[in-house]
Design brief:
By secondary structure, this protein is α+β, with helices and mostly antiparallel strands. The protein is built from ten helices and 14 strands. The strands form three sheets. The protein has a seven-stranded antiparallel sheet. Strands 10-9-8-11-12 form a five-stranded mixed sheet. A two-stranded antiparallel ribbon has the order 13-14. Helix 6 crosses helix 9. 30% of the residues are buried.
């Protein structure tokens, strides 16, 4: 399985200038390639192939006075910028032809130097190297100081240098890491995700929602007001924008670390994990949008999925239209829809149910039913790669046992 390991890097001012040049050159090559294909389409010509595009916007462009400064950065960075453009076009074509599932993908757009996030990628051809002293050597950039939070499990196949909106630099390594099967566990679990309680387990456990964004709302409001008071285009406004970005980055990092710890605990303690396939995009258009995005359900489910695959556990999503909150987990009778303010109800069979616990039990039952084939054998889900921020850590994340009151979403 391929994993990403993210580490903080601390370039000196000269290295920051070199990285800025590399970011700019990669952006220019991407935009030149996109412009060349758009002009060819407007002129009615054929689609510019990858090889011809590379020759035109890199090899021949370096020989012109307008683009001769492209030779100041590694050629691998420029080639990877075109690889990103080609990948964007492939995703667009697959989307409009129906080969790509999910929402429709728009055609590639021009990159801006004012984008909050800048990134370049080095592959093995660039011959980057992790030195014995712990520094990361990159061609035409130098030896970068890296804060190694943990050791790499194998030799990386590529590294991406990222500068985020808060002005922080990260090195993201792609590593082919071996699976780490865990000892068999004797229990399965169904999970009902919500807002009052972030997760309710089928064994009755309730994990309160920490609401990181809500807790930081007062500070974020004050910082955003500081930005609005500054003159547009001034240096003070740029500094205020960075402060806002740092505050948002801290919220995102803390949420991600908390979800990593919770997902690791659930995968370690259960042999099979079943969740509901929520339509987060649709819920994000309702009056609960801020709370839905603050919860980060999609990110948490992706963590469960790849950690289960790596640990040899079973993971599955049940149908989002399954009436888990309407069905009695004791007798199986469907009692009809209920408003969100109804947190408990009594079935005609005499069983009294907590709404969320009952839904989690039904999620577990539906997951077990879907994971069995006609012969009764368990079907193991397909293994998936880890998400981008798999290795991010923050040591002072909030405990997931905090109790918070609020509205629960189905």
């Amino acid at each position: 399985m391929q994993l990403r390991y993210n580490y903080r890097v601390y370039p000196v001012p000269e290295q920051q200038d070199a990285l800025a040049r590399a970011f700019g050159c990669a952006r220019v090559v991407f935009n030149d390639g996109l412009r060349a294909r758009q002009e060819a389409r407007k002129a009615g010509g054929p689609y510019v192939s990858d090889g011809d595009l590379s020759k035109r916007v890199i090899t021949e462009a370096k020989k012109t006075p307008e683009r001769q400064w492209l030779g100041e950065v590694s050629a691998v960075v420029l080639q990877q910028a075109l690889a990103d453009l080609n990948g964007a076009y492939r995703n667009f074509f697959a989307s409009i032809t129906g080969k790509r599932k999910g929402r429709k993908v728009d055609p590639p757009r021009f990159r801006s130097r004012k984008d909050n996030r800048q990134a370049i990628r080095f592959t093995a051809n660039a011959r980057f190297k992790v030195l014995d002293n712990g520094r990361l050597r990159l061609p035409k950039i130098g030896d970068l100081a890296v804060r190694w939070s943990r050791a790499l499990p194998a030799e990386p196949t590529s590294v991406t240098l990222i500068k985020d909106a808060a002005g922080r630099y990260f090195a993201s390594f792609v590593v082919a890491a071996p699976d780490q099967p865990l000892p068999p566990a004797g229990s399965d679990v169904g999970i009902d995700l919500g807002l009052t309680h972030f997760a309710v387990l089928s064994d009755g456990s309730k994990i309160a929602a920490p609401r990181f964004l809500r807790r930081a709302a007062r500070k974020l409001r004050r910082l955003q007001q500081d930005v609005s008071r500054k003159q547009r285009g001034s240096a003070n406004r740029a500094k205020a924008v960075v402060k806002v970005a740092k505050a948002h980055a801290r919220v995102a990092d803390t949420r991600r670390d908390w979800q990593h710890k919770l997902s690791a605990t659930i995968i370690r303690d259960n042999q099979a994990v079943y969740v509901e396939d929520l339509c987060v995009v649709g819920l994000g258009r309702t009056r609960l949008a801020k709370s839905v995005h603050d919860a980060g359900w999609s990110q948490f489910v992706r963590m469960l999925e790849y950690k289960a695959a790596r640990a040899g556990r079973t993971f599955a999503k049940i149908d989002r239209f399954a009436p888990t909150s309407q069905t009695c987990s004791a007798c199986g009778r469907r009692d009809g829809p209920k408003p969100l303010n109804v947190r408990s109800w009594t079935c005609r069979c005499g069983s009294t149910h907590d709404r969320d616990v009952n839904a989690a039990i039904n999620v577990l039952a539906a997951g077990r039913a879907e994971s069995l084939n006609a012969c009764g054998a368990q079907v193991r889900p397909v293994r998936v790669p880890a998400q981008r921020c798999e290795a991010g850590i923050r040591p002072h994340a909030a405990s997931f046992t905090r109790s918070v009151e609020g509205i629960s979403a189905e």
